[in-house]
Write a structure and sequence with these properties.
Helix content: 40-55%
Structural class: mainly alpha
Largest sheet: none
Order of helices and strands: HHHH
Strand content: under 5%
Oligomer: single chain
Number of helices: 4
Amino acid sequence: MSITKFSAFLLLALLSISMLQTLVLANHGHGGHHKNRNGYGPGSLKSFQCPSQCSRRCSKTQYHKPCMFFCQKCCNKCLCVPPGFYGNKGVCPCYNNWKTKEGGPKCP
């Protein structure tokens, strides 16, 4: 009887370790939509990071106020700001696909 209990305990322990390993891998970006290697992409930011990322994104435009307004609105929704000062929106699909009523891009 004790061998049966030991075998059941060992099997349960191995199963638990396997499940834990799967969770750890998923939480470190090896599964699902988590931060990618270069730090950009869907959900790569926390909302408190939006102002600094939008300052970077909008730093070269002459329309700084509207750029900051819409960038922060988009960042808070998408938790992503593309790299660079212009373009590169493909790395943030939510940011790229959010359109105005007229069909133009909402996010700078």
